[in-house]
Fold each of these.
Amino acid sequence: MKKIFFICFTTFCISVVDAQKMSFVPNPVSASKSMLDYQSMELVGFVHFNMNTFTDKEWGYGDESETTFNPANLDVEQWVKAAKAGGLKELILTAKHHDGFCLWPTKYGEHSVKNSPYKNGKGDIVKEFTDACRKYGIKPGLYLSPWDRNHAKYGTAEYITYYKNQLAELLTNYGTIYEIWFDGANGGDGYYGGAREKRTIDSKTYYPWAEINSTIRKLQPAAKIFSDAGPDIHWIGNENGIAGETFWSTINAAQVTVGGAGQGAYLNKGDANGKNWIVGQCDVSIRPGWFFHATENERVKTPAQLVDLYYKSVGRNAIFLLNIPPNRDGLFEKEDVASLKEFKSILDETFAVNFAANAKVTASNTRGNDAAYSAKNITDNNSQSFWTVDDGQKTASFEVELPAAKQFDRIMLQEPILYGQRISKFEVQAFVNKEWKTLASATTIGNKRLLRFDAVVSNKIRVQIDEFNNAPAISGFGVYKSSAREIAKAKSNKSVPGDMDKTGWKISTNVSNDKAAMIIDGDLFNIWRENITNPFFMTIDLGKQKTVSGFYYVPRTDKHLGTIEKYSLYVSTDGQNWGEPVSKGEFANIANNPVLQMIRLNKPVNGKFVKLVADKILDEAKSVSIIEFGLF
Ligand code: FUL
């Protein structure tokens, strides 16, 4: 606006500029103002707190007693204050996870806080949460698991009615809700009111998503809806918090099913030809698991690791959704709070000074030679104004001259996404020692692209844009020097704290003993894999009697091939008589979150021999893979 008045003092002039402005039209699929605002938040928090917190599980079976849920010192304001100090703008609470337990006193069932010791059944954690968020200026969002392993009618139409009722309850009784999160995990075995069986649903037809979404639009017009398929925000295809190096905010939603298999790669890159503008969201937990486990206290992500994820999510045109799970007291642990705070402080320090603010810019071309599209808009610190070029240009470039040479190692670029996402190949160069040096080459930009490279000293930076689907436009540009604290070494993930010494162990398997020693060599990187025809098992001779209180399994993270999904663990004193398994179950959510799995036995057992049986391999693969196995 400012510029229009500056150039045009006559009505005639204004109408000419308007006509030219009009001539720069948005791509057919582009961001709405409200999705632009959503994406500008950048950082959203997740709070996984529910029955699993008290059972030390990732996925509860659904048969947990309500009396187990009892957070003695719950302080929701402590979460919200820590989230705020960490720069999070919105928080999403697991009102109900897959085990079906409800953090609010739903009137549609009994499996909720109302039958727990928490505040003698008078508590309502959704209310406490939404009130606290509002008090501290954080937007509240809610997660309501579609899968319910407690509900007797799961799999039938009756459950859908129950689910819709619960959703309506959450959407009507707790003020403005800003995000609703629909998890794709669906169907499988569970308690189901005592049936204890496996139930599969057809994820394409079981949930009436169109109807559910329109109810949300009606009851909570400000709420953004997340699911694998949007309609507003979509899953990034992994639970590591990482968007593809190339990332489009467009996909074909019709091609994606909520809870469908094998669509992770598509969602991780987006689709240059997608018909729907759906923003990508990178979910990850600050700890290995989504829920709190005391055994993971040593493995809270460091501030440097979180900053790295910021570059791989927000810096690749997506949203960063970071989970911080409260402990059994109902509080964020101090390690998590400290890491989050330092993460924010590193980002603040890095991005405090933009060396390119108001710097001089020259461009290869300016659309219609119109000041409204001037290259000056690139460095004016106003992401609404932008530079663009005439239609039909084959390439486009601009050069920024800093007032003085500076040392820098970060560059930020933005496209005005109200006009869509246009650029698909570009390069950044700096004039160093009298020649142009390439700092980085990349593909997409979108709302924000952050580039990291080794520090250079220069006063001239050039951006060469080589591929685009429509006249390219740039609205923001930044040049920064990263905080020295960012490169603080990430904690080694080599050690598994407190595990049993493996000296003298002997391992044998029913497939091959060739390299099986790799399974217990303490190396958390080498993958042992063998083909199998029968259910896999391995036996370990511990050399002498030991007390076993738990075990861990480290799966491969690169792909699923051979990942164990269900297991039985046996302990024996003679290696002949094994009896009943001392632990049997599933590595919950291992397909999406293939991190170290730690299983605690109900009670410690003495023995000299341990046997692990793979009751089920992910995707029924005909192989088994193990990076490491150990005991506690
Ligand atoms: C997954 C769930 O199964 C996990 O437990 C967690 O809630 C994560 C955010 O989504 O699909």
Amino acid sequence: MNLQSVRGTQDFLPEAQAKHNLVVDIARSVVGRFGFYEMATPIFEFSEVFKRTLGEASDIVSKEMYTFKDRNDEELTLRPEGTAGIARAFISEGLSQRTPLKVMYQGPMFRYERPQKGRYRQFHQLGIELLGPASGMADVECIAAGFMVLNELKIAESCSLEINSIGDEESRRNYIAALVKYLKGVQDQLSADSQKRLEQNPLRILDSKDEKDQALLKSAPLINEFYNEESKRSYAQIISALKAMSIPFNENPLLVRGLDYYSHCVFEFRTQQLGAQDAVLSGGRYDQLIKTMGGPATPGVGWAAGLERLSMLCPLEAKPARPVAILPIHESTEQEAFKLAYELRSKGLPCEVHFSGNMSKRMKKAVAQNCFAAVILGPDEIQKGEASVKFLDQGEQKSIRLTDLFSALRS
Ligand code: HAM
């Protein structure tokens, strides 16, 4: 049997899981203050849900999906992202009655990408979606919530917000025509990847990391020259509100994002600390998504953050509550020790019972486990209804009546 975890997946040992949970708890608490409440959708969906929404030519659909047939010959896909599933649930659960709908979700996502630092095949996202409002102020609320999450995780200062508008459909259509015209003129100087994209997904050429492509793009037309009035107005509203809220950003006319469902504003918080995988929290507006899926026309905006990336960057430490060690001196007091531990736990105190090995080793183990007190139970003490309690930080030891033990330990 091959005992390695599958390439691109990882085990979360207790410390890593505690950090992951800390990041989720902080993010959940922040977005809760903005009125986003958690919901969950299944980890797999009919493949159509992703194929029809993310775009056949997108990297995700064309080469990264974990797609399989189940025993009933249904074609299913492990979710590569969360937005399409939320949009599917919005339609199938009839949530259009509940707009503006603000939801948060978190959990594993799956993409068959080349694994490297910060990039995995099973990774975790935490995201928010705001469905209903078409106003740019909804984009601002989402961006502000993302910024506050990064702030409370103490990573906002090492991240920069890149923002752009890819305009509405009409503006984008006109822009793509001009971009393709320009790029066709320099086609043979483009990288092989960009030449392919010129046919299938020309906007993504703006994302190219190839230096020669980047140099050619310097003279390419820019999207902001093609905004119609509506696109101009909604983007200006967002820029002005971000300034008013002192949320720092860089306008980046080359930012396009890799999924087909976006329109108008797109954004990405990036870091320089994770090498090539620099996107920490990213998203944008998707006004046509729900309609494309057959639901009632409902604008939407949101973002998702990679939790592994947030955990790597976040300097905060998960601090589990400190336990009490219960040490029965003798076999005859073991039962009493487990009973006492059960009572204390039921009142809310974490306890560890150490009943094997010599006393000094057990005491060392208690210290190593960050216990704040050791309750030593001998037959004589139990007879008297007492325990000997050593407070490990102070080194002080005293006898405490068993009936007073909980309040003594709690204080
Ligand atoms: P995305 O940019 O594809 O957007 O992913 C969002 C975040 O997930 C990225 O910024 C990154 O932090 C993390 N991420 C993506 N791929 C990986 C990977 N292979 N390993 C580790 N982390 C990764 C979306 O998924 C959109 N659904 C976001 C959105 C929500 N747009 C509107 N609403």
